Amino acid sequence: MAKEKGLISPNDFAQLQKYMEYSTNKVSDVLKLFEDGEMAEYLQGDAIGYEGFQQFLKIYLEADNIPNHLSLALFQSFKMGHLEDTVENDVVCLSDVSCYFSLLEGGRPEDKLEFTFKLYDTDRNGILDSSEVDRLIIQMMRVAEYLDWDVSELRPILQEMMKEIDYDGSGSVSLAEWLRAGATTVPLLVLLGLEMTLKDNGQHLWRPKRFPRPVYCNLCESSIGLGKQGLSCNLCKYVVHDQCAMKALPCEVSTYAKSRKDIGIQSHVWVRGGCESGRCDRCQKKIRVYHSLVGLHCVWCHLEIHDDCLQAMGHECDCGLLRDHILPPSSIYPSVLASGQERKVSKTSQKTMDDLNLSTFEALRIDPVSNTHPLLVFVNPKSGGKQGERVLWKFQYLLNPRQVFNLLKDGPEAGLRFFRDVPGCRILVCGGDGTVGWILETIDKANLPVVPPVAVLPLGTGNDLARCLRWGGGYEGQNLGKILKDLEMSKVVHMDRWSVEVIPQQTEEKSDPVPFQIINNYFSIGVDASIAHRFHIMREKYPEKFNSRMKNKLWYFEFATSESIFSTCKKLEESLTVEICGKPLDLSNLSLEGIAVLNIPSMHGGSNLWGDTKRPHGDTHGINQALGATAKVITDPDILKTCVPDLSDKRLEVVGLEGAIEMGQIYTKLKNAGHRLAKCSEITFHTTKTLPMQIDGEPWMQTPCTIKITHKNQMPMLMGPPPRSSNFFGFLC
Asked: Where do the Phorbol-ester/DAG-type domain residues begin and end (predicted)?
């Protein structure tokens, strides 16, 4: 069916999106190569053949080995009319291809509108005729269909837009008319990837949503239909048909107090519909949500009530079950509303911000509700497939949207500046270990007066730090409200962090760049770094093969098997020497292929190379201090047997690995641990040949060098509550 319609299959489209996620190229750059660059030989007028199309994909997706079935299916999807099995003499329109990919890639909607218009404006006169606009819209419809939109609803919206553009019936459209119409057609902007910013001007934060249950439009109050798509506001859950979006009432959510009377006391903000529980929190009776647009929900405390129960509700809102985390609008207000004395303090504090340009966040002051711990949330929307994006949307509703920062759009600096002087605040990082490392490094540089403790919602693939902090091995759609309640019961631990200095020797060989200068999780040389390096290279080359945690484990096992055959790091002790706190570590009686230096007891998605230790009764930190007295170095095998890993003891665990087979056995839980070599507070490696290395899962090849690892600082982290018989995170370490 897909082939008859000229569409690639859903699996092919998902594979294409994975390639695009890893590529950094832009359509406009690739197009220049075909128009007047090295790829011009493939251009036939405004068309390219199959060979030219393959070259386009190779350059644009930055992939040398795109599966033939995918490139063939894509090529045939651009052909007009009957689809033949042969492609030798067929051509496709380069403008169609470029338009399609530009709609899918990131960027501002207005830029996409202008770029796609110019693609079909071949004579560069700023005018398109109706047939050319139709071709442009066809590509938009194709993208919408791949993204699982209901194109039967989008088509009349675009047709109506075209009628408004061509007001004089001339059949032609100017660039200015096209941009003006596109910028006011909400469903089209959402399709193009509209990224709205918080303006507190009644603007909704729309996203497309397909509803698994009957839902009613907040504007026309008719049913959107089971399984049909509409638009939902992330801030207030106002829901409309695509065609009703342009007439929607303003968003009721204001994220800060705009006048003195709004400061200090938060009022309920009621919005019709959105009563997902189906039960009234006031009278406990059912809300018949399946029959019409009924019920009210408060966007701050999330209470759901009957329309008739509204009069019995008080005016003041306490922000409900999540009040400990929420910054209500009544706690955020413009600095100009502060009293004269407070304003002077504000100006003094502003001078400490390194001459930052005033933005919306710097112009606002925060006075949190007493005895609460406002939560600053950082989300990497690309982590965990589409999970990151969904988590971002959910937190924008559960909390004040000004507490939630999209890392790809804003970075962490803006959020840290906004929360700089907020007492008792906490930070939640939603992403993988790499995202957590990024936030911790930014906190280091921010020079905050008080460093807030950091929790982790694991969205990556390894999530080793999240495992050790009892936040689990990966978020899989659990109730975020329950996770936030767990965060309330968490305790602060101070995690050691370590500086890494790599001093290369003078050789003709060139090293890869060292990925980090700080260790949060672990460092290793040899066999496991070699496996990780091969894994990294293969994932860069074939990203579509590494789209799940289970696939990643299978690939890792395959690379470990081949490494055991070739043993590229055999007799590692002959290629390096190790000093711990200035004293040589004797490796002469060992035959090692790898050495791992651990700050936390988890690597590669849950492998504990140090192994389990029968824990004596008492405090872990105190026990470790007693076993090692005040010594910075422990090498006695008998003492090492009883040492328990502690991420706060300012010491590292050093483990020797005998080979890939042993690594695989530990990884698959068939063996308990590697060979315990030492606990120490400082370690130095001297290498004599190029070896694979890794820091926190990021591998590289390093020429002969000296590597010094020393204690940097401690970062307050939040340890999750002890696991219950039924927990929300799967397997815990």
From this structure: 203-251, 267-317
